[in-house]
């Protein structure tokens, strides 16, 4: 898969980028669509919440 066909969420600017124009330290992804990349933070927060809930149940 070409990196130009992949989308990334830039955590520094809050914008979706196609390809890899910025440093990896500011990128989340890759995602197959622009829409999925735009929801990157929402998806990460959802996963974190689920993991925290599981950790609390395990304690």
From TrEMBL:
Domain of life according to the entry: Bacteria
GO molecular function per UniProt: peptidoglycan binding
Pfam families referenced in this protein's UniProt entry, alphabetically: SPOR
Positions of region (Disordered): 35-59
Domain SPOR: 10-50
Record protein name field: Sporulation related protein
